[in-house]
Amino acid sequence: MSASDEAVRRVVHEVIAEILPAVPGDRIPGDAHLRDLGADSIDRVEIILTLRERLGVDEPLGSFSDLPDIDHLVAYLCEVTA
User: Fold this and answer.
1) What is the pLDDT of residue 3?
2) For the packed helices 41-55 and 70-81, what is the interaxial angle rounded to 10 degrees?
3) What DSSP string runs through 49-70?
4) Does pLDDT of 4 surpass 90?
5) Cα–Cα distance, 61 to 45 (Å, whole number)
6) Is pLDDT at 70 greater than 80 in this prediction?
7) How far is CA 15 from CA 41, 63, in A?
8) At CB < 8 A and 24+ separation, what contacts does 55-58 make?
9) Count of CB atoms within 10 A of residue 52's CB?
10) Most buried pick, 7, 20, 33, 38, via CB within 10 A?
C-alpha cells in the first residue's frame, strides 16, 4: 500500500468515525460494508458526500453504490484521486 493509499484510508476511517461515533476509527475492518458498521442510508450518503468534499472527488454518488466494502471504497477513492 502506498503512502497516498494509506492517507486515503486514514481519511475514510476519520470520516466514518465522525459520522458513526460508536465505531472507533482505528477498528474498521476492510472487509466490512458501511451497513455492517451500523450506517443507515442517510449515514452512508453523508459519509460519501464528506469523503468527496475532503478528497476533492467529483464522482457521482451512484458510482459508490456497488462498492462491497471499505477496502473497495478506499481503492476506488485512490483511483479517482490519482
Assistant:
1) 57
2) 30
3) HHHHHHHT----GGGGTT--SH
4) no
5) 8
6) yes
7) 15, 19
8) 55/8, 55/11, 55/81, 56/81, 57/81
9) 17
10) 20
Helices (H) and strands (E) in the chain, counts: 3, 0
pLDDT digits (tens, 9 = 90+) for 8-62: 999 999 999 999 999 987 889 999 999 999 999 999 999 999 999 999 999 999 9
In which element (H, E) is residue 45 found? Answer: helix 41-55
Q: Return the sign of the alpha-carbon dihedral for residues 66, 72, 77, 79.
A: negative
Secondary structure of residue 16 in the 3-state scheme: helix
Angstrom distance (rounded) from CA 2 to CA 66? 24
This prediction's pTM: 0.92
Confirm if 54 and 8 have CB atoms less than 8 A apart. no
